[in-house]
């Protein structure tokens, strides 16, 4: 019901492979499967090779949510999984009620510079 696509922000090749995974999902996954794009290792800013704007643009092109996370520090990990679970539940509830329309998307707000380990949904 949900797929998380993860790339390493310090590895351009891993980001380039996301397009291949998107194509594979389109060809092989169930219609309407929820997808989420995660840029991992955001705790390694000094080694960044993939700019956040690149990934945000890709996510918007595919109509999916995007988070930058750190598995090491747990930054945004809970928020990302919660977001995907909420989208799956909303879609599932829409099917049961006969409303197959996707719920309105929720845009990510910019991270608060004072509290850099949290992003908010608006």
From TrEMBL:
* Classification via SMART domains: RAB, RAS, RHO
Tell me the membrane topology, using the record's own terms: Lipid-anchor
- Which compartments does it reside in? Membrane
Where do transmembrane segments lie in this chain? none
Q: Which GO terms describe its molecular function?
A: G protein activity; GTP binding
Pfam families on file? Ras
Spell out the GO cellular component terms annotated for this protein, sorted alphabetically and separated by semicolons: membrane
**Presence of keyword Glycosyltransferase:** no
Q: What general EC class does the enzyme of this chain belong to?
A: hydrolase
Task: Name the keywords, alphabetized.
Answer: GTP-binding, Hydrolase, Lipoprotein, Nucleotide-binding, Prenylation
Q: Where is this region: Disordered?
A: 92-122
Q: Which reaction does it catalyse?
A: GTP + H2O = GDP + phosphate + H(+)
Which domain of life, per UniProt?
Eukaryota
Entry EC number(s) = 3.6.5.2
Alphabetical list of PANTHER family matching this protein:
LD44762P (PTHR47980)
Give the similarity note.
Belongs to the small GTPase superfamily. Rab family.
By what name is this protein known?
small monomeric GTPase
């Amino acid at each position: 019901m949900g797929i998380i696509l993860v790339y390493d922000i310090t590895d351009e090749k891993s980001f380039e492979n996301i397009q291949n995974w998107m194509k594979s999902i389109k060809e092989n996954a169930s219609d309407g499967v929820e997808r989420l794009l995660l840029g991992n290792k955001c705790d390694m800013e000094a080694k960044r090779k993939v700019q956040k704007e690149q990934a945000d643009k890709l996510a918007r092109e595919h109509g999916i949510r995007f988070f930058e996370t750190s598995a090491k520090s747990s930054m945004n990990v809970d928020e990302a999984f919660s977001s995907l679970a909420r989208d799956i539940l909303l879609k599932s509830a829409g099917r049961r009620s006969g409303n197959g329309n996707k719920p309105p998307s929720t845009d990510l707000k910019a991270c608060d510079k004072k509290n850099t380990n949290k992003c908010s949904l608006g």
